[in-house]
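[Discussion] Sanity-checking designs against the backbone

I'm trying to build intuition for which residues belong where. Below is a structure token string of 218 positions. I'd appreciate it if someone posts a full sequence so I can compare it with mine line by line.
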């Protein structure tokens, strides 16, 4: 049950980024930032399931781990600048934002797509959440990254995971078949929820963190 709890958010985010937004095809090249983390480890697995060539950024100590998820190229971000080492990628999945997102645009081929799960939101997001009147505001928030993307002849999209029972059913089949596997870092009892949040915010998690509840009557 702990592993099951670690799956839905990251699995849906990975699927919606790579299948719905990027429409990744076999042989395409995908860069995943933070491959040892909860989201990155799942994105790597989904990308490999789709037949993509996958590169990821991670600490050197995590190289064996991310290769185990399916990454074919690992860049130690404490020693290597990915923007100087990579080029011609079809898709980048960003979970850091800021300078990492800006530099990620430079490793894409013409027409390539950078997807960020941390923003800034774009106009399409306003439509996704049913607030079309906010499109100008969202467009304003993302104007700098979109302008940089246009200059480089690439694309930018913001992703906010949405619930989908049908996609979860598809993903459950992949987990059951062993094509994907959950990545659980550690669990915390409910009483230590604040400690769990601090653990994640400090960047210590190498996988998903799950809050557990005591059985009824315990």
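Best answer:
Here's mine. Compare freely.
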């Amino acid at each position: 049950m702990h592993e099951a709890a670690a799956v839905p958010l990251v699995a849906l985010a990975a699927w919606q980024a790579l299948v719905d937004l990027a429409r990744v095809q076999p042989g395409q090249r995908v860069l995943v930032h933070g491959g040892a983390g909860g989201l990155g480890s799942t994105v790597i697995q989904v990308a490999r399931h789709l037949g993509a060539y996958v590169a990821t950024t991670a600490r050197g100590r995590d190289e064996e781990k991310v290769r185990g998820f399916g990454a074919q190229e690992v860049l130690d971000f404490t020693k290597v600048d990915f923007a100087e080492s990579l080029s011609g990628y079809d898709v980048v999945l960003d979970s850091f934002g800021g300078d990492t997102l800006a530099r990620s645009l430079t490793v894409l081929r013409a027409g390539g797509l950078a997807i960020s799960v941390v923003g800034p939101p774009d106009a399409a997001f306003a439509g996704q959440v049913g607030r079309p009147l906010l499109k100008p505001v969202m467009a304003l928030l993302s104007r700098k990254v979109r302008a940089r993307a246009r200059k480089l002849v690439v694309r930018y999209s913001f992703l906010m995971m949405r619930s989908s029972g049908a996609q979860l059913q598809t993903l459950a089949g992949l987990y059951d078949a062993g094509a994907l596997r959950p990545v659980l870092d550690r669990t915390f009892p409910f009483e230590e929820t604040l400690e769990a949040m601090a653990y994640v915010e400090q960047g210590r998690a190498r996988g998903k963190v799950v809050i557990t509840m005591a059985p009824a009557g315990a």
